[in-house]
């Protein structure tokens, strides 16, 4: 069954003929090539674009190795443009092309060409390319499957789908695999032999063991506050390693640039300012995170938090960890300030939502605990608690909405329910 990926198709359609290079970025195996060469190409054909006016080159294919030479590929593309009608140039894994910035700049001068490229590394694409083109590069970042997209291809109900999703993640190929053994082998090898190997080769890393250990530490700390000094302390106490703070910061940046992890900064809601470290790191795909830990730490509470974070980002929101302060009376009669955490503060333009991930609220005490940070926020923006349980969407007397994670993930307008 084809997964439509309508959001990303619309992102490309809305950018057609805008005079900019459409740069499709994302983690390896998330579906960038499929989006460009299958879904978008199908759309162009349906619009009446002849296939002769689509110039497609997959640069990671050995048969196209010659096109990694900048002069060869430019000569080839120019030879394919035979009239003044619109042409669509689609280049896959463009970071494999030598001097690709110069090549893409040259292609921008072809008046009747609309250009689309994919790549797997943000160092080469979302940062350097966008800077190089000075406003003429337009990034579309593609994520692995949302739960809604996952369920389009999953043969089963939402509860069994969730059980698969939270363990094996949302890379498209895992949905097609029939056995757990296949999925485990695929994800484990993919992380080690593709993602980490890419980083090691690209940055010429010699301390490969430390990179692997750091990845494990971050995987274990999903949903927990951390920072490089804390990680350094863990290296010294648990691994007996003297890795430096600078190396830790650098390796974290490499993992972010490869789209393996992303960070959520802490934001003081009342003070309206960022706090700095510690912060939280989440994985682009929890299946990869679980594979890195040998599928031994499947803490559904933390993984649900990771899934909610990713869903918000896929919907276009910038996402921070919220902090609010509250005065508390002490036993000695004095008061003290304590900090409470809001899992996510999601912003998109003028819209803002405060969201708490609560695996369950079986007791009144637990319910009050989950609400404690939200009730301290006195502005008019919506406050939501997402729970694992199947519940009706409700709103209490304090204006806090509670909904099931299934409603949150499967309904496109869930934030407005």
Automatic annotation (TrEMBL):
Source superkingdom: Bacteria
AAA domain segment(s): 20-151
One GO MF term attached to the UniProt entry: ATP binding
Keywords annotated in UniProt: ATP-binding, Nucleotide-binding
Pfam family, one: AAA_14
InterPro entries: AAA_14 (IPR041682), DUF4143 (IPR025420), P-loop_NTPase (IPR027417)
Coiled coil: none
Residue span, DUF4143 domain: 197-356
Name of the protein this chain belongs to: ATP-binding protein
Annotated source species: Schaedlerella arabinosiphila
């Amino acid at each position: 069954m084809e997964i439509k990926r309508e959001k990303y198709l619309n992102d490309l359609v809305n950018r057609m003929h805008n005079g900019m290079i459409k740069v499709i970025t994302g983690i390896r195996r998330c579906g960038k090539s499929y989006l460009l060469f299958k879904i978008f190409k199908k759309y162009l054909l349906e619009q009446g674009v002849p296939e002769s006016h689509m110039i497609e080159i997959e640069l990671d294919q050995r048969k196209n190795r010659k096109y990694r030479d900048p002069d060869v590929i430019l000569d080839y593309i120019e030879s394919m443009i035979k009239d003044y009608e619109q042409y669509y140039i689609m280049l896959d894994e463009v970071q494999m092309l030598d001097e690709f910035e110069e090549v893409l700049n040259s292609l921008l001068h072809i008046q009747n060409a609309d250009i689309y490229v994919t790549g797997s590394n943000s160092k080469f694409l979302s940062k350097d390319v966008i800077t190089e083109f000075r406003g003429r590069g337009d990034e579309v970042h593609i994520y692995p499957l949302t739960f809604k997209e996952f369920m389009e291809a999953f043969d089963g109900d939402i509860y069994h789908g969730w059980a698969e999703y939270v363990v094996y993640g949302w890379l498209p190929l895992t949905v097609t695999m029939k056995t757990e053994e296949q999925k485990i082998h695929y994800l484990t090898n993919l992380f080690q032999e593709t993602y980490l190997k890419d980083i090691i080769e690209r940055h010429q890393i010699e301390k490969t063991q430390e990179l692997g250990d750091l990845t494990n530490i971050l995987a274990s700390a999903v949903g927990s506050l951390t920072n490089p000094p804390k990680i350094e302390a863990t290296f010294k106490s648990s691994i007996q390693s003297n890795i430096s703070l600078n190396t830790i910061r650098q390796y974290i940046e490499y993992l972010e640039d490869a789209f393996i992890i992303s960070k959520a900064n802490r934001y003081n809601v009342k003070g309206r300012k960022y706090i700095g470290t510690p912060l939280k790191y989440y994985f682009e795909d929890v299946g990869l995170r679980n594979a890195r830990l040998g599928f031994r730490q499947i803490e559904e509470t933390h993984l649900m938090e990771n899934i909610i974070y990713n869903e918000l980002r896929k919907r276009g929101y910038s996402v921070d960890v919220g902090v609010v302060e509250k005065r508390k009376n002490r036993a000695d009669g004095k008061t003290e300030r304590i900090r409470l955490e809001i899992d996510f503060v999601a912003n998109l333009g003028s819209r803002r939502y405060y969201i708490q991930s609560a695996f369950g609220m079986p007791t009144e005490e637990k319910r009050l605990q989950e609400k404690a940070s939200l009730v301290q926020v006195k502005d008019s923006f919506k406050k939501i608690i997402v729970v694992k349980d199947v519940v009706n969407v409700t709103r209490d007397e304090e204006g806090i909405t509670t909904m099931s994670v299934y409603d949150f993930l499967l309904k496109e307008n869930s934030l407005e329910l």
